[in-house]
Specification:
Elements lengths: L5 E4 L5 H14 L11 H8 L3 E4 L4 E4 L7 E2 L5 H11 L3 H6 L6 E4 L6 H10 L4 E6 L2 H13 L5 H8 L2 E4 L2 H6 L6 E6 L10 H7 L8 H11 E10 L4 H4 L3 E3 L6 E7 L5
Parallel strand pairs: 1-2, 5-6, 5-8, 6-7, 8-9
Antiparallel strand pairs: 2-3, 3-4, 9-11, 10-11
Helix pairs in contact: 3-5, 5-7
């Protein structure tokens, strides 16, 4: 794929960080720009964005002058992973009824928090695929899943097993054979506003075009077990597309489930 932008390093970066930046620039077929303590906004004006900035702990991307950085982090997946490892409990895993060896497709990857739990739950014999249409989100999350080192070794191993595909979910689903995966999962931007710095930053880069109804139709054809939708509790999409709602009284979002095994 062809990417826009350039790679640079943080100010006063050590030589190993600069070396990592050059390797990423080569991997992504982007120019590497020597920082020389210049402000990111100045480099964006001169070179054009987005700017991928390699630091000691993460890769940040700045879309344009004055924008907030976007970066990968397991976020809540860390706490959820610990609960799963110790108690085998997670609402998302339960909604999807994930078992060892299953194949799950996340059609709206975003920061990939849920696919990390999916990968833990289905184990080494399973397969987790994340679809992401945004070039920037794909680039940051794919690299993050492959290189981020958390304090949980099982979570690190689970992240490495996730396959991320830069594609439009609507087109990808159309091309898949019938009953070729176990679960297709959707976590689109909520119809209702939810206050969160992470969501606001993600919105800068997300792509929301597509025929959601057609995606649900194709997901029902492609999945063997379930199609699952995570959405705001006030969302009209649950009723509109025939999801059975798994009500979560203490949460702002619910899970909607289309159980394909019950239809047989």
């Amino acid at each position: 794929m062809e990417r826009d932008g350039f790679v640079t390093s943080s100010s006063k970066a050590a030589e190993d960080i600069k070396k990592w930046g050059r390797k990423l620039a080569e991997k992504w077929s982007l120019p590497y720009v020597v920082r020389r303590k210049q402000p990111i906004d100045k480099l964006i004006r001169e070179c054009g964005g987005p700017a991928y900035v390699v630091t000691t702990t993460r890769i940040e991307v700045y879309r344009k002058e004055g924008s907030q950085p976007f970066f990968f982090h397991p976020n809540a997946a860390m706490f959820r992973a610990k609960r799963w490892l110790y108690h085998q409990e997670d609402p998302f895993v339960s909604a999807c009824d994930l078992r060892e060896g299953d194949i799950l497709v996340d059609a709206t990857l975003g920061l990939g928090s849920d696919v990390q739990l999916a990968s833990l739950a289905i184990g080494k014999q399973g397969n987790v695929i994340g679809l992401e249409a945004s070039e920037v989100i794909f680039t940051i999350v794919e690299e993050g899943l492959q290189s981020y080192e958390s304090s949980l070794l099982p979570l690190n191993e689970a992240m490495r097993r996730i396959k991320v595909i830069h594609t439009n979910a609507e087109n990808w689903l159309k091309e898949q054979p019938d009953a070729s995966v176990d679960v297709v999962y959707f976590d689109p931007m909520f119809q209702e506003e939810v206050s969160s710095d992470g969501i606001e930053t993600l919105k800068q880069y997300g792509l929301y075009e597509g025929d959601f109804e057609q995606m649900i139709i194709d997901a029902i054809r492609v999945a063997r077990k379930k199609v699952v939708l995570k959405d705001h509790f006030k969302s009209t999409r649950f009723a509109l597309y025939g999801f059975h709602v798994q009500v979560r009284p203490s949460s702002v979002f619910h899970y909607g489930i289309i159980d394909l095994e019950e239809r047989e």
